[in-house]
Amino acid sequence: xxxARTVGIDDIATYVPRLYLDATDFAKERGIPPEKITKGIGxxxxxxxxxxEDAATMAAMAALKLMQKNDLxxxxxxxxxxxxxxxxxxxxxxxxxxxxMLEQIYGNGSFEHIGAPETKFACVGAxxxxxxxxxxxxSGWNKGKHAxxxxxxxxxxxxxxxGESTQGAAAVALLLKEDPRLMMYEPDSRGFGTxxxxxxxxxxGRTTAVVNGHYSVGCYLRDMRIAADxxxxxxxxxxxxxxxxxxxxxxxxxxxxxxxxxPKMVEMAFASFLIHDWRGxxxxxxxxxxxxxxxxxxxxxxxxxxxxxPYKQFxxxxxxxxxxxxxxxxxxxxxxxxxxxxxxxxxxxxWMCVESSFEVKTNDLAGKRFAVGSYGSGxxxxxxxxxxxxxxxxxxxxxxxxxxxxxxxxxxxxEYEDLHEERLDPHQGIDxxxxxxxxxxxxxxxxDFGYRYYTFVK
Length: 458
Ligand code: HMG
Description:
The chain contains 15 helices and 16 strands. With 458 residues, it is of the alpha/beta class. 3-hydroxy-3-methylglutaryl-coenzyme A binds at residues 33, 35-36, 39-41, 85, 122-123, 162-163, 165-166, 199-200, 211, 213-214, 216-217, 220, 259, 261-262, 265, 344, 346, 375-377.
């Protein structure tokens, strides 16, 4: 018999490379007006991995931080589950490389009892992994052991392409357990929205993504709307929320974080979310007095509509209304403070937004509903929610993302291009490694060709 348990996120640890590319330097070099990137897209800095870093070292750094700050031992952990779209091997999961790195600290074989899968679904992969692991814990099959879900990615597009201004890198580790201190998951809330689409992908062998940029924005908005409708339906049918006259679903959500490929995308997503939620409510009359009527969408597909000029203009006017501004500032804005200094980090991005939201805002959030909107190209969205727990402050006090972001080193555009094109040997990085896992070398013999050797540098 299933026993009802409280499961969720107990703690979060983040890792961001120490190097960054300044968006203004980058824009000047590319002949783009800097405001297009800093204001139009909303990115001020992009984090760039050094030559000795990759998705596995970033993941191991986040996991080690999570273990150390919670005084965890390998015996406490049942799963290390990695989500990434920066896979390093077609067969071996990054989770196993992470296990090997952690065992350099905790002892050879110390994690041999764990399960260690890797999940892939573009940027939404970590949210799928989190739901899987929480369901496992909820079933009791975990026998009291915790799970670590790690999202790790390097967002990379071709040099001189329009996607280049939306790059970045980061990893985040989530500690999942029963009776979590940070956020309790509401399992009945989750809504999915999935379509077989081709907005963004990376064929085997390529290091950069193939992207249809404006189309991908439309896919994001379409899938998020499908998932938000499912979320609404689930919240109402399970009785978690009942709406009084004149209320929208967003009135029952106190905080929301979205996947952020670039901060402006989140503003667009939240605006579409509110337009959809508020249409038909008494407050809508006040909105369209300011914006004019919503454009006609007869005969248009969702994507055609979302990327059409009349809808974009309507949404822009909506974002200027005091009603939108108040909701955005109260529920979303803080989640983007870190993201504008990181850029895209694919699977990690949403969870960096969650950490940013907690770290920046000082209001009392205990007992409040925290929703997330996760999107991955290809394409799928998940909207689900959590309840912030009474002792969450104890956890948030140990967050240090904003401090870590203030201690990075700026690199030149030439140095960035060397790293992007992988012209530097792992031992010839820009910043000498210290207190971190590094890629030491790649195997060269018949039996270890391409195998990745990692070591911890003190
Ligand atoms: P673009 O063509 O370079 O830019 O592409 P744009 O012309 O659309 O301009 C961007 C904004 O800057 C516009 O604002 C301009 O008006 C404004 P908007 O009209 O949209 O409000 N602008 C200026 N603002 C101030 N001063 C100026 C100025 N000039 C223009 N002088 C695009 C931008 C994001 C499409 C491109 O960078 C790209 O392709 N990026 C990669 C794809 C992407 O991030 N897609 C997002 C949705 S898909 C997703 O999130 C999944 C993903 O993370 C992958 C995964 O799931 O694994 C990507």
